[in-house]
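Thread: Newbie trying to understand structure tokens

Hi all, I'm a second-year student working on a class project, and my supervisor (Dr. K.) asked me to get a predicted structure for one chain before our next meeting. I've only ever worked with sequences, so writing a 3D structure as a token string is new to me. If someone could post the tokens and maybe explain what I'm looking at, I'd be very grateful. Here's the chain:
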Amino acid sequence: MIYVENIRKEFKKTIKQPGLLGSFKSLFNPKTEKVVAVDDISFNVGKGEILGFIGPNGAGKSTVIKMLTGILTPTSGSCTINGQNPQKDRKKYVREIGVVFGQRTQLWWDLPLTETYAVLKEIYEVEDTAYKRKMAFLNEVLELDGFIKSPVRTLSLGQRMRADIAASLLHSPKVLFLDEPTIGLDIVVKDNIRKAIAAINAEEKTTVILTTHDLGDIETLSKRIVMIDKGRNVFEGTVSDLKESYGQMRQLNFELERAEELEKLDYKSRFNLSDDDIALKSDGLSCEVRFNSAHAPVSEVVSYTLATAKVSDISVKDADIEEIIRRLYQKGVEADA
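---
Reply by user tm_fold:
Sure, no problem. This is what the structure looks like when written as tokens:
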């Protein structure tokens, strides 16, 4: 459904010299430098797939999304979505995509949702029968009934986000771009929106590109992720691949019988670990140790803990995906240095 081949985006940045004289010089003889926001990124997305598209702030995610939606034109490379070029086939193309930006809304502030959706129905030329069927489905999965007659300005953030997702789906797009759809929402609302996205994907076979900082979204919705940093691909594969490649970190949780017992434990010296391979936190009797099992086997860490300190309870679990991604980014920073 989506083919992205070696896209690159460069911007020209004006360098302003200090002071009033510098302002005049910049006005009449501006000096510019080239900024590379996206550097040779490639990936594909299959029909009906939910792809997690992630990266730190400033990585180039939004620039990539803007090129895929046709807002920006790549400096070089190409992207094809459902056989169309987002820039050259813009008028026809935008009828086949839906876009939701978590920090912006496409809804009219003072209009009730019913009127907003009616306007969008006419803009996209949706037939009456198809519109009624789609609204019934969206009401079911997004639970719009409780606020669908309310003006947008009166909606909570969670209600507004559900309303925005519904608006982006009225014309049955083949591709849906979701940029931070759960930002700022509480855990219950996040869970409801995740379930709604999964239901829409299953029912409509809509291809979804999900950009998010909330790794719970990724683990719940995406089987495959593309990760970028500083405008370049740093990882592409399944969440399982990511955990297998970078998931050597384990987390040991245990309860001490006495707080003084913690002083006996020196994992760093015992296993000759670097600061990046070991981290210990304690809150009274409760302790948490994150360690690199490639350098300190789980069985040996557990045995050392039990033999050295008096422990009343102990458990081991895999590090979460957030920890894995933090380590992947750290490797990238070290490689650049």
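A couple of things are worth pointing out once you decode it. Residues 187-204 form the longest helix (18 residues). The chain has two domains: 2-9+39-243, 248-318. Feel free to ask follow-ups in this thread.
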